[in-house]
What does this fold into?
Amino acid sequence: PKYRDAQFLTSASRLSQCPEDSGWEVAFAGRSNAGKSSAINSLTKNHKLARTSKTPGRTQLINFFSLSEQQRLVDLPGYGFAKVPRAVKEEWTRQLENYLAKRESLRGMILLMDVRHPLQPFDQQMLDWALAANMPVHILLTKADKLKKGPAKNTLLKVRSGLAAHAELVSVQLFSALKHTGHDELVAVLNAWLTD
Ligand code: GDP
It folds into this structure.
């Protein structure tokens, strides 16, 4: 797919509002501030796209971007930290879990975490849901430029070995939107998931 052709498709606040469940989809998840918008921007070279997801008052469960008729990128907002009533959060959590469990076209999850704070409870929850659905997860350790090469590599190896029991479904890489580190590695994973 041509990631530069990504176009905003729709936002859904309920599963019933998702586009038809056909073709291929990859979801991006991360705590707020993990660097998700920056990663989507750097991938699509479209600075307006991911900002859509951040418009205040438009916090949605899921944002869909189309790459082609049958290929989509999906932005799962860092909903856990949005300032909304607890009941709304709980409902979103339920819908999100459902989306991850039921969506046929969803081929994998890109899970972004700040290289300086990997595997927070939110990340573990996402991993658990994805693994329960037998879905591959590719972890981006973001803002890799914030650490020196040695410590960044150490974190990569540590996260990788911590998840070794799930090595068939989980992969990990360093990423920096700022320095364009790991761009090709990410594209290779997306290409594989979006075509098979
Ligand atoms: P989001 O909330 O997950 O969408 O995160 P953003 O993409 O908005 O990034 C959060 C903050 O981290 C912003 O201040 C970004 O400028 C910064 N940031 C994102 N990616 C990088 C990166 O690769 N390197 C550095 N140094 N900062 C980054």
